[in-house]
Amino acid sequence: MEAIQTEKEQKANRLINILAIAIPVAVAVLLGIRQKVDLGQWTTWLPHINGVINSLTAVLLILGLIFIRKRNIEAHRITMLTAFALGSLFLVSYVLYHLSNESTPFGGQGVIRPVYYFLLISHIVLSVVVVWFVLKAVYFATSGQFERHRKVVKWAYPIWLYVSITGVIVYLMIKPYYIH
After folding, report:
1. Which of 6, 23, 2 is nearest to 131 (CA)?
2. What is the Cα–Cα distance from 151 to 1, expressed in whole angstroms?
3. How many Å from the N-terminal Cα to the C-terminal Cα in the chain?
4. In this predicted model, what pLDDT tens digit does every residue of 75-111 receive, in sequence order?
5. What is the pLDDT of residue 169?
6. Nearest to residue 68, comparing CAs of 79, 82, 52, 83?
7. Which residue stretches of 33-145 are H helix?
8. How far apart are alpha carbons 138 and 80 in whole angstroms?
9. Where are the transmembrane segments (predicted)?
């Protein structure tokens, strides 16, 4: 039985590691494509939808923490899996937007400009880092390895919450510069 679990875990680790590298690399490659694909005018609304998705994700992460502290495991599970699903939806929406639209430059001037770029850069870097942690956290939770889940969540949770909140802040800061 132990050998089967070990083999299963090795496969899961391999998949998590591949996804944690492949997702950011694929996003970077897609962002680097200069020739945009015409997917239609509807894609101009995707940044606004992504702002909502990030907001909902942040709220769900906070609720998930509240639920687990109250030992409401089922509500925690549903809330966190919903946050994970929203994160996946965000990724698809983000890729579709940047595949079909030019990036919007930030037009702010003065002291707000370095604040914006600090938030943007830290958001991007940590969004790459958090993929591995979140995948591990979800795997450990869904496979019943709750002690390992707790250990990885000590890193995953604050990073994921930071990425979600800064995603909303960055969106609100650049929102006036989007063209419809």
Report:
1. 23
2. 24
3. 58
4. 999 999 999 999 999 999 999 998 898 888 899 999 9
5. 96
6. 79
7. 46-69, 73-100, 112-142
8. 9
9. 12-33, 45-68, 80-100, 115-135, 155-174
On the 0-12 / 13-18 / 19+ scale of CB atoms within 10 A, 7 is exposed
How wide is the angle at C-alpha 129 spanned by C-alphas 31 and 164, nearest 5°?
A: 80
CA nearest 167: which of 14, 49, 7?
A: 49
Question: CA 57, CA 165: separation in Å to the nearest integer?
Answer: 9
The amino acid that residue 81 corresponds to is L
Domain residue spans of the chain: 37-177
Letter for the amino acid at 12? Answer: A
> H-helix or E-strand containing 26?
helix 2-32
Residues in CB range of 155: below 8 A, 6 or more apart = 133
Report field, pTM of the whole predicted structure over 0.85: yes
Query: What are 93's two structure tokens?
Result: 């929406």
